[in-house]
Amino acid sequence: MDSDSGKKISVSRRNVLKSAAVITGGALGSGSVCGFPTIWAQNIKDITLIHIGGAWAVIKEIGDRARKDLGFTVEMQAVDPATQLQRSLTQPKSFDILLNDYSTIQYLRGKDVTKPIAIKDYKLWDKTLSMFTTGKFPSGKQIPDQGLSPMMTGFWDGPDATKFAGKPTDWLTMVPTVFNADTLGVRPDLVGGKNAVTSWEALIDPKYKGKAALNDIAVVGTMDVAMALEARGDIKYGNKGNMTRAEIDKTINLMEDIKRSGQFRAFWTNFDQSVNLMASGEVVIQSMWSPAVTAVKARGIPCYYAPLKEGYRGWAAGLSPMAHLSGLKLDCAMEYVNWYNSGWQGGFIAKQGYYSPVPETAKKFLTEAEWDYWYDGKPAPVDITDPYGNLMEKKGQVRDGGSLWEREERIAVWNTVMDEDRYLTRRWNEFITS
């Protein structure tokens, strides 16, 4: 948040909102912001922002906390990826805030759907991790360039938002809010222990015939199998995140052979399906998201995210206000975007295994033990719980994959939308129906 109350500033909706937040209790994230002064509370109390995105992050408790801190309503609408994309393209005025992946923003380029964000309007940019601001890890190492990294799609070339800059500019496509490095979820009690799975190749290993599952998103499911095929030595890709048609054909043809062998038990489309498949034991190895692993553990069932030797599939997501917003509603949307990384949400989401792009604010809402476990990869000094207080990990356990940077610096490829996306989608559909 700005601290402009001591300066002579023009009276505008944006400036009054900023000053109001300062008067109310200081910077966002301090835990003391509980709404705006009465005169402005009357104006914003009837404002409702509709925030859509995946159930893994569009969570009622986050919206409830935002309302408590900001004074207006944030309505969380969790949707599957296909519905989210369809609404973004065909009904963009039906919601106000979009949680989007840095890869799938590609589908919205040139569509005048989201509003470019001026860096000057995002107050935590100077505290944001360098992987988002300069394209480098804190060690100075460049982030990987296979797939679509945050640097490739994180900036517009200007305020007209027609092209990605591919480098830092003054215009963000979204404010980064959550990121992670994905791998395979495994039931250690059903595969012979944690050390039984060390390579992506295990996903297509016949020993798990009928017990493996894939995410039914064309590009994610294909990349997960591509990691496995490359690990097994079937294909050497030029760029798994942007395959040629020949590479797509070879990959899908092999996937069809693997499917016909009975390898795959299911192709899941949402979070709950992946949790239930793993918790029931129907599946022992699969594409999985971090909070799904957490959800299985919270049921008292062994599950872990295997730190595979070939590396991780990285991803990051962020918030974009929609293009139709204006006036007071746009002001509130920007207050919400700024609030989102101010700490509380980062602390909450960390307990599902996700990282905040502004860790120093999230740290204020984690105990020392939680920070040591989730971010630093140290043995848990106490039992670790999920965001809802359910036991997730016993004292002494270490997070799968280690610390934040041990995980992130082992990313092999980012989530992506390939140049041959339409062709890949057609071939994927053939694979699913084969």
Give a verbal description of the structure.
- The N and C termini lie far apart (53 Å).
- It contains 17 helices and 15 strands.
- With 434 residues, it is of the alpha/beta class.
- It has helices spanning 13-25, 38-44, 60-70, 81-90, 130-133, 150-153, 188-191, 218-232, 245-260, 271-280, 290-298, 327-340, 344-350, 359-362, 368-374, 404-408, 421-433, and strands spanning 48-53, 73-78, 97-101, 117-118, 171-172, 175-182, 184-186, 212-215, 264-268, 285-287, 304-306, 312-321, 384-385, 391-393, 411-414.
- The radius of gyration is 22 Å and the shape is globular.
- The protein folds into 2 domains: 13-173 and 315-341, Periplasmic binding protein-like II (D-Maltodextrin-Binding Protein, domain 2); 182-311 and 410-433, D-Maltodextrin-Binding Protein, domain 2 (3-Layer(aba) Sandwich), CATH 3.40.190.10.
- Residues 1-39 have low confidence and may be disordered.
Structural class: alpha/beta
Strand segment tally: 15
Task: State the shape.
Answer: globular
Query: What is the CATH T-level topology of the largest domain?
Result: D-Maltodextrin-Binding Protein, domain 2
Please give the CATH class of the largest domain: Alpha Beta
In round numbers, the mean pLDDT is: 90
β-strand amount? 15-25%
**Distance, first to last CA:** 53 Å
**Helical content (DSSP H or I, runs of 4+):** 25-40%
Helix count, per DSSP? 17
**What name goes with the CATH superfamily of the largest domain?**
Periplasmic binding protein-like II
Major sheet characteristics: 6 strands, mixed
Radius of gyration: 22 Å
